[in-house]
Design a protein that fits this description.
The protein is built from two helices and seven strands, in the order αββββαβββ. It is of the alpha+beta class. The chain is elongated, with a radius of gyration of 19 Å.
Length: about 140
């Protein structure tokens, strides 16, 4: 029997895990680099999905919703670390100075433009790692008072 932290280690560490899914009593984990995977992993099938390797395991019986949440927290921590650099505006002579733009990456679905308590608010979806439609974050902008 292995714990969630054991599984994370066997999968090459926290920085190597990018997604976890739980369809039909299976545990699907997307990783960045297969070379970092340990040989001691339980049996799995491997599939390439949109250019990323995904490993599918039979859901370990001793894993429960709390175990899945723990893996999700590992991924969330990793995503937060990756967005720190992306939160700094890219230096570019073509960067708009009047229109809303994300610090870098893709701005999608701007909405919720409202005026509340003396400030304008705008929400939008943001993918900070490139100009492609992948997993997005919600961003919130406010006007200067």
């Amino acid at each position: 029997m292995f714990s969630v932290s054991d599984l994370v280690t066997m999968l090459g560490g926290q920085a190597n895990i990018t997604r976890v899914l739980y369809p039909n009593k299976q545990l699907v984990i997307e990783v960045n680099d297969l070379a970092l995977i340990h040989d001691s992993l339980p049996p799995y099938s491997l599939e390439d999905v949109l250019g990323k390797p995904q490993l599918t395991f039979s859901m370990p019986e001793h894993f429960d919703e709390a175990s899945l949440l723990e893996i999700g927290c590992v991924i969330a921590d990793q995503q937060k670390r990756l967005t720190v650099d992306a939160s700094q505006p890219a230096a570019c002579e073509h960067r708009p100075t009047w229109h809303v733009s994300p610090p870098r990456g893709l701005l999608n679905d701007p909405n919720g433009f409202i005026y509340h308590q003396g400030q304008y608010h705008l929400f939008y979806q943001w993918y900070p790692h490139g100009c492609v439609h992948k997993d997005k974050y919600w961003a919130h902008l406010t006007s200067v008072i």
